[in-house]
Write a structure and sequence with these properties.
Length: 736
């Protein structure tokens, strides 16, 4: 059984005083009007008020011209009378100058006659519901009738409205929302409207209607009226509709939900290599856009000197030292294979600054100068992930490292000539040390570097916790864990991965009867990606709604009202509680909405205890939201001004102690800011994108590399996924 509130209709039947005015030339005088009499068998009564006198005549004023019009009223005067109410009808007669003529004869009639009966003192009892037409007439001096009418509305009240289905807080998935109920009234004429649409009512008062649902919170408003009473009976309630509900994994100790593919990730070819060199903005800035650019910077700024012994050679005949090394303008290419990555790197110039000497007979040749070598590296790297709970495995399957050319630029021409000899021991020693240095400093580090990069895809998602406190109830801690459980490489196209997401709140679930997480479309394993050469992240709407469902089930929206009541209301409220009967729901926007998403909270029920009564209200909140990416994290940015509905569900008194308008203001100004903060920015979490902060371990000069993830396409929602198409941009400030 649902309790309902009554609201005034915009129309008021029978309130207007209908006057019929006619003119005549007869005169009359009296100074009192007698009360009419009535009975159930006669419609007419004539009243003669001739016993009274009129003092309005004198020698200077014109004589009255006789009745010109009359007015009707009733005592008491009401818009609607209850059956068995008693009234005294009154008529006043006026001449053409507006002077009241007391004593004029007035005849009365009532339609229908059976709707009234006479009682003592000239009063009338209104005994039947409906419209009662009261007519009062008098005659002009010429004998023509002058009449006035008034319609009285007699009604026992608006219909008694009962909603049998759905119930407030229901979770529905049928094609239509069927609204069933009864509207009972003592009159036969009953009108019912469901969300503004007229509904047929059977003779027994029953009615049903089908409402076209939309995903998310659906607000239903059912109005019943008898067409007479200025008040109607209204029932308001919220239900949650979804084509499918996703089962949760809670037990008696926690609320939880798992999606095997809560997040999907696609790294396109251009993430690894867009086949363009890094953009050199100036001598002090370099911009990178792919992994190949990162390896370019690594080669340029890696410290090879640590891997070169000093001296390189120290014998009686040869002393060789390499005092410095540098790599100029390396070229890096990366392609995806079926099992990993293939790298090809060309180093046009590896410059090794040298010092030392070579004893050749009696001559001591100066080795000060440099060696300039051109090198190439080809490597095949295997990438795999054995399971969701294990890290990536990155292995160097094969590599080739070769010096294509080498040129000596010593101070001694003779030393240069010796170096150029194909079988020169000097050349062999120098080439060997260069190959070993590049191999040790770069090639052997590649698997570790790439392993760190791939593992960073899930680092920001593993073992996260978000404490949330609305300040009016128990604090709730959301536990979030994301791990890559499927990893697939498409040859020269993309790497695709799905991330298993687990969400939980410790503590016994409050709404174990819930059907689960609302899905905007039936669940499917198909991923929503389109062709891209960048980074795509697909975030299930179901994951976001799963987070909200888990927080709701864990008690986040069970609140103590008194904690945020202003002082003037605390004095009249002894206790109060808010309970949300439905979880918050994120839904795609309707056409034309300027938001990425719509957030709704439905059937928030607020119960206020007063000294001698209890009032229960319902509330509904909806607001737009944007998805924002900052610092590699995603957050829902909720708009400041929500749309809020507040209605009275029931009261044990004659009227609620606090108006709904006051509660609307209270929710908007006190409660909403805390909900907005907690469900929006408070739930920001990292995206599964590479973290390159470890590069400074290999090349300290790269510690200043600033990486930024930027959107390259507008956000879109496809097949239950929020799809972000992005790319990363690295900016490396160079020291002057």
């Amino acid at each position: 059984m649902t309790n309902f509130s009554t609201t005034r209709n915009l129309f008021a039947l029978g309130v207007c005083l209908l006057l019929v005015v006619a003119c005549g030339d007869s005169t009359g005088s009296s100074n009192s009007t007698k009360k009419p009499s009535a009975n159930n068998s006669a419609n007419n009564a004539t009243v003669n008020n001739a016993n009274n006198t009129n003092n309005n005549t004198n020698n200077t004023n014109p004589l009255p011209t006789g009745p010109a019009y009359l007015t009707l009223s009733a005592d008491p005067l009401k818009a609607v009378y209850a059956p068995d109410a008693e009234i005294t009808p009154k008529a006043e007669v006026f001449d053409a100058q507006g002077v009241r003529l007391n004593g004029a004869e007035v005849s009365w009639s009532f339609e229908p006659a059976a709707s009234i009966e006479a009682v003592d003192g000239g009063r009338l009892k209104l005994i039947a519901e409906g419209l009662v037409l009261v007519r009062a007439c008098t005659n002009s001096a010429a004998g023509s009738a002058i009449c006035a009418t008034k319609t009285l509305v007699v009604d026992a009240g608006p219909p008694q409205l009962t909603i049998h289905a759905p119930k407030p807080g229901d979770e529905l998935s049928s094609r239509r929302i069927e609204v069933r109920g009864t509207a009972i009234d003592s009159r036969d004429d009953v009108y019912v409207y469901v969300n503004g649409q007229a509904v047929a009512v059977d003779t027994d008062g029953s009615f049903s209607a089908n409402v076209e649902p939309h995903f998310g919170i659906n607000h239903l408003e059912i109005v019943a009226t008898d067409g007479l009473h200025a008040l109607s009976r209204t029932a308001r309630l919220d239900v949650l509709w979804a084509p499918e509900f996703y089962a949760t994994q809670e037990d008696s100790t926690r609320s939880a939900v798992r999606f095997e593919d809560g997040i999907a990730l696609k790294l396109g070819q251009n993430f690894f290599d867009n086949k363009q060199p890094p953009l050199v903005i100036s001598e002090l800035q370099i911009v990178t856009e792919d992994l190949a650019d990162i390896l370019y910077l690594l080669l340029r700024y890696i410290d090879l000197n640590e891997q070169i012994p000093d001296p390189v050679v120290d014998t009686t005949a040869l002393l060789l030292r390499v005092t410095d090394t540098s790599i100029e303008d390396p070229q890096v290419e990366i392609d995806m294979t079926d099992e990993g990555l293939e790298l090809f790197i060309r180093v046009p110039e590896l410059v090794a600054t040298t010092a030392g000497h070579l004893q050749l007979g009696d001559a001591l040749l100066d080795l000060s100068g440099s060696i300039v070598a051109r090198m190439s590296i080809r490597a095949n790297i295997l990438v795999s992930k054995p399971s969701a709970n294990e890290p990536f495995v990155v292995e160097l399957e094969s590599f080739e490292l070769a010096i294509e050319t080498a040129e000596a630029r010593f101070q001694s021409d003779a030393a240069n000539a010796i170096f150029e000899l194909a079988q020169s021991a000097l050349r062999a020693q120098i080439e060997a040390i260069l190959l070993d240095t590049v191999n040790t400093s770069f090639v052997e580090l590649l698997p570790d570097l790439l392993r760190d990069i791939f593992n960073s895809l899930e680092t920001a998602l593993i073992g996260q916790s978000f404490p949330i406190d609305l300040g009016a109830g128990d604090a709730v801690t959301l536990l979030f864990d994301g791990r890559i459980n499927r990893f697939e490489i498409r040859h020269k196209e993309a790497i695709e991965a799905t991330i298993r997401t687990d969400v939980a709140v410790e503590g016994a679930p409050l709404f174990a009867h819930s059907r689960g997480v609302a899905l905007s479309v039936p669940y499917s394993n198909d991923l929503p990606f389109f062709f891209t050469s960048r980074i795509q992240v697909g975030l299930r709407l179901g994951l976001i709604n799963g987070i909200f469902h888990t927080l709701w089930n864990g008690g986040l929206l069970e609140l103590d009202v008194k904690s945020f009541l202003p002082d003037n209301l605390k004095n009249i409220v002894s206790a109060g509680h808010i309970s949300s009967k439905l979880p918050p729901v994120i839904a795609p926007p309707t056409r034309g909405e300027p938001f990425d998403l719509l957030l709704s909270l439905g059937q928030l029920e607020m119960t206020l205890e007063h000294a001698n009564q209890q009032d229960t209200y319902g509330a509904n909140i909806s607001v737009g939201a944007q998805v924002v990416i900052t610092g590699g994290a995603i957050a829902i940015q909720i708009a400041d001004k929500p749309e809020i509905r507040v209605w009275l569900i029931s009261t044990t008194g004659n009227a609620p102690r606090i108006p709904t308008e006051t509660l609307h203001s209270l929710i908007l100004n006190q409660l909403w800011p805390q909900i907005k903060l907690s469900l929006g920015e408070g739930l920001s979490f990292g995206l599964p994108v590479p973290d390159l902060s470890m590069l400074d371990q290999y090349a300290p000069a790269l510690s200043n590399l600033e990486l930024d993830l930027r959107m390259t396409q507008p956000l879109s929602i496809r097949d239950e996924f929020i799809v972000l198409d992005a790319g990363f941009e690295g900016l490396l400030p160079l020291l002057p």
